[in-house]
Specification:
This protein is mainly α. It is about 60% helix and about 5% strand. The protein has a four-stranded antiparallel sheet with strand order 3-2-1-4.
């Protein structure tokens, strides 16, 4: 399976997996095997590692994925990994301060496809973050409607969210997906949600969809 096909399958699986693992004790996704794959020159291998890390979230998942996106994750090819910090570093496997090896291992290189995979995983995970300000920002990053496979994750986050403003941000992300749906009811509800928004981006999206239907 090539990387594009794996990403499509992964995003569909992530929607269900996040709803289960974030509400129960999760298996560790950041392990030596995943770090070994990230050291590979094969981008398919790296994609599989990112998939495994994101699908089994724990306290180390966000720091490792963020470090990977920022070019701050170092791996030695033997299952070891370190996150570069302003001071010394963090052991990626245990999340505790650790001195970087000398010489330092290589940074993990990623391409645009992997960056998109990481960004989608980070946004989905952050929908359930305990910090109130993190959740609406995550929802806004998904309001382009491109991540249809994350619909169930968004719906689950919306149903669990107690803050009205955050719920609204998630609802707009849902509507941006549903406005493209084949289900007439979902489409109509999405149009109403987007039309009621005072955000210019949402109105632009709605106008574009109306124009496309007219064509």
């Amino acid at each position: 399976m090539n990387l594009i096909a794996r990403m499509r399958a992964w995003r569909a699986a992530l929607a269900t997996t996040l709803l289960c693992t974030l509400s129960a004790a999760a298996l560790a996704g950041v392990d030596a095997e995943a770090l070994k794959k990230l050291a590979s020159d094969d981008f398919d291998e790296k994609g599989a590692a990112i998939e495994a890390i994101a699908a089994n979230p724990d306290a180390r998942t966000l720091p490792v994925l963020k470090a990977l996106a920022d070019g701050q994750l170092l791996v030695d090819g033997q299952g070891g990994g370190w996150i570069k910090t302003d001071t010394e570093g963090l052991d990626a496997l245990i999340g505790k301060p650790a001195k970087l090896p000398d010489p330092a291992p290589d940074e993990v290189s990623i391409n645009n496809m992997l960056r998109g995979q990481i960004d989608a995983a980070l946004a989905a995970l952050k929908l359930f973050a305990p910090e109130r300000d993190v959740r609406p920002a995550a929802a806004r990053s998904l309001q382009g409607g491109e991540d249809e496979a994350l619909r169930d994750t968004l719906k689950g986050a919306h149903d669990k969210e107690g803050d009205a403003d955050v719920r609204e941000a998630i609802a707009l992300a849902l509507a941006a997906i549903d406005v493209r749906s084949d289900d007439p009811k979902l489409r109509l509800d999405a149009v109403r949600t987007l039309a009621s928004s005072d955000r210019a981006e949402m109105r632009t999206l709605l106008a574009a969809m109306v124009e496309r239907k007219a064509d």
